[in-house]
Design goal:
This protein is mostly helical. Helix content is 66%, strand content 0%. It is built from ten helices and no strands. Helix 3 packs across helix 6 and helix 7 packs across helix 9. The termini are far apart.
Amino acid sequence: MATPSLLLLLADGRFPAGAHAHSGGLEAAVAAGRVTDLASLEAFLAGRLATAGLVGAAFAAAAHRAAAPGTLGAAESATLATTLAQLDAELDARTAAPTLRTVSRRQGRALLRAGRAIWPDAPFADLPTTPAGAHQPLVLGLLCAAAGLSRLDTATVAAYGTVTGAASAGVRLLGLDPYQVQALLVGLADACDGTAADAARAADDPPERLPAAAAPLADIHAEIHATWEVRLFAS
């Protein structure tokens, strides 16, 4: 049985998975003049929640659903590996920008290092074994299952992470009042919870039918950002 502390631990930006190094696309949006103040930051976060937030949370919840039975026998492990491979391929197809695919897998590798140290008995060996590693939401789903969190908890952690990192980056990039940014996040709390609930329900669908919400402008920004020689955030 998971405790509330474990939910807070995995949702904490200080969890050693490298999330603090990423702006969620905000740095490029600021440079393009599309996010300039608190109001435009709120619109950016709401859009991110409805696209990357929903997709990431649904895939994390689906990975949790696949791994939730607990101790896996050989047959279950084979099924889990197949399901995770399908999820990985489907999430790759939903991530149009090559840079964002690289970022997701890089964050997955970082999260996996932390997960193996904390929950060494989790079925991480069933993740896809490509050199680039698995997508971050799939690793998160396995971590949350190992921690005993529910599917909804898992989706909540994923959705929450898509907005808090970018919000924190907004303070640094725009010099915004951190108290006002936190108030903005409070205002988005219901939307975050609703996104997580939608994602948790969607996890019952087969991989090919999971949400595919897209943000083409974010994809373009990601590719432009990757060409910069000097930048504050990795993405």
